[in-house]
Amino acid sequence: MNPSSAARARSRSLRRPGARGSAPLALHRAGAGRPPAVPIPLRARLRETIRHSILDAAEAIFSEHGTAHGRMEQIAARAGVSVGTLYNHFVDRRDLVDALIESRRSALLLAVDEALARREAGFVPRLTAFLDVIFAHIETHRRFFSLLVQEESGRPPGGLIAAAAHPSPTFAALKRRAQRLMREGLRAGILRRERPEMLAALLMGMIRGLLQHELGAPPRPRPSLGAEQAASFFLEGAGRQ
C-alpha cells in the first residue's frame, strides 16, 4: 500500500461509527434509561464543525465544476479555511469526494430509519414516509446528485452492467430497508403474495427511475411526482387484488 492509500484508509477509518477519534459516537450512546453521553471536547467539536464546512463547500464547488475539475483551493476558499487545513482533514480529492458521498448517504439513511421507526402509523403511511424522505433528501442536494447521475451515465456499457450487478452501498442499504417494509405489507395483507425481495426490487426500481427522471430535468418548484402519488402507483401494481 502506497503512502497516499494508507493515509486515505486512515481517513476513512475515522468516519466509521465507533472508530477511534469518531467524535459523534458519544451522541448516539445516550438514550432512554442510559446515563448522559460524555460531553465532546471543544477541540473535537471545532474540528467537526470545520469538517462539515469543508463538505458543504465541496458539494457546492463539485456541483459547479464537476468532481474532476473542482480544485481544492476553491473548496478551501469557499469553506473559509486554508488549503493546509483542508488537507489536515482529507488526504486528496478522491478522499474528499468519498467523504462527501458517505456524509450524504449517512444523513439519508438516518432520516429513513427515523421515518420507519414510527410503527404505529401503519404500512401505507410508512411507505409514503419512506418515499418522501428519499425524494426530499435528493431534492435538498439536487445539484450534487445531478452531477453524480451525469457522471454515471457517461460510463462505458461495461461499467453500467457492473454497477447493476454491484449496486452502490446507498442503494443496497435502502433496498434492505425496503425489504423489511415489504414484509410488513405482506403481514398486513396489503401486498400481493410475492417474495419481499422482489417487491423491494420493484419499489427501488421505481424510485431509481423517478430520481433519474427528476435529476435529468430542469429544476422546478416541486417534483412532478410526490411521495403519495408514487406510493399509490406502487400499490396499484403490487397491492393485493
Write up what this structure looks like:
By secondary structure, this protein is mainly alpha-helical. It folds into 2 domains: 42-90, Arc Repressor Mutant, subunit A, CATH 1.10.10.60; 101-238, Tetracycline Repressor, domain 2. Helix content is 71%, strand content 0%. The protein contains 12 helices and no strands. Helix 6 runs antiparallel to helix 7 and helix 6 runs parallel beside helix 10. It is globular. The termini are far apart. The model is unreliable at 16-31 and 155-166 (pLDDT under 50).
Q: CATH homologous superfamily of the largest domain?
A: Tetracycline Repressor, domain 2
CATH architecture annotation of the largest domain: Orthogonal Bundle
Radius of gyration: 20 Å
Number of E-type strands: 0
Helix content: over 70%
Within the CATH hierarchy, at the fold level, what is the topology of the largest domain?
Answer: Tetracycline Repressor, domain 2
Discrete helix count: 12
Q: Which consecutive residue ranges, at least 5 long each, have pLDDT under 50?
A: 16-31, 155-166
Class by alpha and beta content: mainly alpha
**Kindly state the mean pLDDT as a whole number?**
79
Distance between the termini: 57 Å
Number of domains: 2
The arrangement of helices and strands along the chain is: HHHHHHHHHHHH
The proportion of strand residues reads under 5%
> What would you call the shape?
globular
Which CATH first-tier class of the largest domain would you pick? Mainly Alpha
The profile of the biggest β sheet is: none
GO molecular function, one term: DNA-binding transcription factor activity
Organism: Eiseniibacteriota bacterium
Biased composition (Basic residues): 9-18
Region (Disordered): 1-32
